Structures are given as C-alpha cells and as structure tokens.
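note to self — DONT lose this again. spent like an hour looking for the file last time. sequence + predicted structure for the chain T wanted, 362 res
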Amino acid sequence: MRVTLIAGARPNFMKIAPVIHAMQKKQAAGADLSYRLVHTGQHYDKHMSDDFFEQLNIPKPDVNLGAGGGTQAEQTAHIMTGFEKDLMANPSDLVIVVGDVTSTMACSITAKKLCTKVAHIEGGIRSGDYSMPEEINRIVTDSITDYFFTTTELANENLRKIGVKEEQIFLVGNTMIDTLLTQEPNFRKPEIWDKLSLKEKGYIMMTLHRPANVDEEDKLREMVSEIMNNSRKLPVIFPVHPRTAKILKNLGIMHERLHTTPPMSYLEFNYLVKHAKAVITDSGGITEETTVMHVPCMTLRDNTERPETIFTGTNELLGTDPKAIAPAMKNLFSGNWKTGAIPPKWDGHTAERIVEVLLQEI
C-alpha cells in the first residue's frame, strides 16, 4: 500500500509523526507499506527547522508545495494545484489528512477528483460555529472522506448523523496525545523559567490568538484586566504572536506580573503548561494536552470542537464574556477545580491502531 501523508502547519506534523513511526515499525517487520510526506507550506513557522524534524524523529517532507500566503481562496487554490501535480506524479492508494486546516480540505478535494481514497485523522469533530474557517474545512472534508479515524465516540455520533456508514468509522484515539506522551520526557525549561524564578504551580499560562478575542480592543483589554485582577500574586506567562504583541503595545496593556514572550518551541511551551497552576486559552488543541497532563484549563470561547475536554477532562468553557473569568479563578484558587480524567484510547498508541486498520481493513 502506498500512502500519502498531508501536513500544512506545525500541529499537523505533531499528529502525523506517530503515524510515521508506526508505519516504519511495520515496514521493518516486512509489511507492504510505503509513505510519502507532503508539506503544503500553508504556514511558515520559523521553529520548523531541521531540529524540529529531528525532535519528532521523522524525515523532512518529500516535498514542500510552498502554498502559503494569500486569502483563504487563494491559498486553497495554490494547495490544490500544487498537490494535483504532485499526486499525479506520485500516485497513491490512500491520502491521509489530519485536523482541520485549509490543507486538510484542499488536499481531500484534490485526491477525490483524482479518484484516490481519503482517510481523515480527527474526523467528525464539530464546534457548530460556521464563522470559523476550520469548521467549514471539517464539514467539507468529512463529506467526501472514505475512512475516518476518530478521537471520541462523540465524533462517531457526528459522522453517523451525516450518513457515514459504520464500517467507515474507526475509533482509534488521539495522535496528538501520542506525540505528547512520547515527547514529555524531553520537555525543557525555557529561559523565562530561571529569569523569573518560576515555581511548580506558581504561575498561570495564557494563550490568545482568535480574532474574536484579540481584534476587539475593548474586550481584549477587559479580558487581560480580569485575568490580572483575579490571578492573586501569580505571574502570568503569555507567549504571543508578533501581530498580537503589536495590538497589546498599541493598547498600552501592561502589568508587572504579565510577561509576554515570543512564540515558543513545542518542548518549551509544554514544559510550562505541565507545571502551571492553570492555563487560560482560546485554543482547542491545548485543551487536549491540559486534559492529559491534569492541568486546570479555562477556554475563552463560546463553543469548542473538543467537548470531551470538558465532559471528561480538566477544561471549562467560560465563553467570551470577561466577567466569567473572576468566578472561574475563585474556583481555581479555592481548590475546587475538577480533577478530570483522560478520554478512552488517549493512551499513546493511537497511531499503532491506525496502521493496523490500514493493513487489515483498507
């Protein structure tokens, strides 16, 4: 079997890496299985150096389509035209896409138009928020996908509702957690740990990047104010994108306990997450990692595509009203935050189950 693996952004490689490792093990055991890794180039990330691939223990991509930049439509078109040429030159039995970025949707459409079957890792997750490009990507991808590798039973239910047949659905777990558990022993302290003399459970991590939070100036100012006013005397560590940093500077948002940093590497960032008192975020993926590491998490969104982190894990969905922050902080500091549990099959062996399905079912 010839498989083409698609990645368009750094988190995609985190989800693909365990699959590559599982495939390599089967190849070494004599399985008729080969793969090709395609980077669409959707996102440029300065942290994706040679060291990045060495840390993940995966080869560099076979090709980079260089499709970054432009509007959503322009980027989709660049990815589709680039991948069409690549897939025609390197035919495959199956194209595997992950997550919900533009590359996920664009490469799925391209593969199907070339009569190549598609499998979707993280198929079936839904937020119900059609204002999010990611939700459109999920819906379009899942409408044409042949095989679904799902993270939870809730994702399975979402797929059944749109008419997906039972034999197309495989509940395997979460490959992002495979990477987290593999890399956890390699987490490393960032410079800011010693610079600020940080202590275990003695600080709060914060990430904000969604336009609904960072582009609305009054809301951003009020959110940060509520966080700082209710975080007791703890430092708040805020890795920020340069664009968000510029907004913060223009708004004059400063506090002696608020420490902004440039974006961090995966190993440094998750070191801080693991040892934090709590995490405040508007990211979906981080809520999965905090759940597995049993770190209290507050999500500043009105919806989430990962409700299992709330029902089972350590996450709470606060919404986007800054006034929801104070009671959540009070609950945290009173010691009443839920302990949480880890969803079924989030055990570090998801990729192995995926490859078994590839060899036995597809």
